[in-house]
Amino acid sequence: MDRDSARKQHRSPLLPSRPEAGLLAVTTAALVSGGVCLLVGAPQLADLCWGLGTVVAVVPAVGWVLAALRRGHAGVDLIAVLALAGTLAVHEYLAGALIALMLATGRSLESAAQRRASRDLRALLERAPRTARLLTDDGVRTVPSAEVAVDDLLVVGPGEVVPVDGRVAGGAAVLDESALTGEPLAVRREQGEQVRSGVVNAGGAFELRATAREQDSTYAGIVRLAREAGAESAPVVRLADRYAAWFLPLSVGVAGLAWLVSGSAVRAVAVLVVATPCPLLLAAPVAVVSGLSRASRLGVVVRDGGALESLGRARTLLLDKTGTLTGGRPRVLDVVAAPGWQSVQVLRLAASLDQYSPHVLAQAVVEAARRRGLRLSAPEDVSEDPGRGAVGTVAGRRMAVGRLPDGAELPPWARSVDNRALLDGASVAWLTLEGSPVGAVLLRDPLRPDAARTLRRLRTAGVDRLVMLTGDRREPAREVGAVLGLDGVRAGLSPADKVAAVRAERERAVTAMVGDGVNDAPALAAADIGVALGARGATASSEAADVVLTTDRVDRLADAVVIAVRSRRIAVQSALGGMALSLAAMAAAAFGLLPPAVGALLQEGIDVAVILNALRVLRDDREGRPALTPAAEALIHRFAAEHDDLRDVLDAVRDAADQLSDGAGPQSSAAVAEVHRLLTERLLPHEHAEEHQLYPALAPALGGPEATATMSRAHTEIDRLARRVATHLALSDHTGTLAPEQLDDLRACLYGLHTVLRLHFTQEEEKYFSLAP
Q: What residue spans define the domains of the chain?
């Protein structure tokens, strides 16, 4: 069944009937009934039961063979049909009943694998706007969105989906465009700027001048792309059928030769009986179902066995950026304070003002302040200008947080913040006091801590090419690609561009696409295998995908690929091993050493062997990840939480270094003294505890103490730089002020300490903290 037909099948609210289950029940009953009759001394009645079971199996088997022939290939079922017919012709009814049971079992297992929750692109259609608010001389009236014409004037209210493409006609629009670009940050569109259908109004109501009809708008195009991409996917060819391409003519040839040489049709039937490809019919489905079961335990839902097999053959992996390689939510990257202010003070005041705002950046600021344990003040007289920020009174002072007024003069420290935001691809929330900037909060969507480890595991599993496709700007996209060591980065892509990129990669190798947004749905459908992060992603991407990760961990992608590769490898081993044993049995049957009934029983033994081998997929819970003890996991969670608490220490180190640029004085000396206190009381005890508690607990899972040696060296460097800071303070004790000759070395020491700490924290989060769920 190809992917498109499978999705059409599941559009019906009622599932189709399952003839495989009925066939399995009938063949089992026939075999058991015949056995009972034989035991009570009624062999003719036993033959009747077994014969009926054989006949019942022939009818659907012929249908499956004809369906396969219409698709242009002869599957393994053709050998089974020949064997069933042969057993009836030579009256070997027990052999026929056994073959019928094996055929029904294999088909039932395969059908079970294909019914693992396949759905269509219903979410895309459900999300599509169906009505629009049309502004006329008589007021506003609601009309079906299909009736909107070009140049109609519409009103889009807060939280509404834009129904058609258009331009902002009145006021400014603050839009959540994540459905199309995947980017979580709201954008501001001024009057006259283009707005695409499918985006959500994240601000106040605005007027929209339609520039396209519904069927010609962006969102309708996404739905069409997803449908077309899904329809063009090639049908999945069963693993068993590929091996049958040579096993089928060989079996028929050996059977014909045995009949020709011996003149006995029974020998030919015996050859076909032992040649019945039960290892093929059973090995692949059992391994696949076992793989699906293993994946589901880890929160990976695979639609069917064909999807698992395709994932195991994928050699190119295309990944969306936002929400896939990054967290999908902005986080505070840094807090910069104006001269005379402290970064902790800036963050606390900005969060106090932002705590009632629903804006995604405001929520990130508040979350960062609460993570650092800051006590927030209750703001008064708060008002919010969508797209600009919030204004209010905090502790008796009138403040604002958000964008600066257009054309505002920036002091030197603020210009450096602007430059840094450009270099880091960050957004800036400015804190102003009575119109003057006093601090800035830089926010960025950070990389997932487990992203780098996931990509390394994917390469180990056999993925040769890793490419990022994103609608984001080129600069932040290239930075992510460089950090993760990707083979290619394509930025600024529309959904149509992503589909074109997927099609180009499919011409080179089996290609998987990974994404989480509505804008990724067409690309997921266009790929050989689509993988959606469904924990926080758009429902449409999950509906268009073949594999859905239900947990918000991208490392489950590597787990899924490892399971798929292992399932396919074991299925191939089982199939080839079973066929090798069948070939030996065919030779014995051709020489008259195996009558059909005995051959059928021998085939049962081969079947048991391949099934047991296929069930090995269920073993090995680690799937390539280090096995952690509960105590080690608890330590990981503890130290990960401490990293969040220590962010203000890192900020204080850099702030003190910045203040040294203004020269020696009581203020810079006090800042360095405060840094020394924070290092002594908070940071160094944390690093010491990691060295003597966390690292020994992780060493057995990582391969021994040598695995943590490099990170231990970083602890030594942190301790050395902290002692150097203490020495500088000791030298200034007799005066209480730093000497000018100390400034260069101390400033370099503090900047170096800040850099080492940031790198060390990132390495620990990537290498160690990402190991624990």
A: 19-114+236-299+563-618, 123-224, 300-304+306-327+447-562, 331-444, 630-771
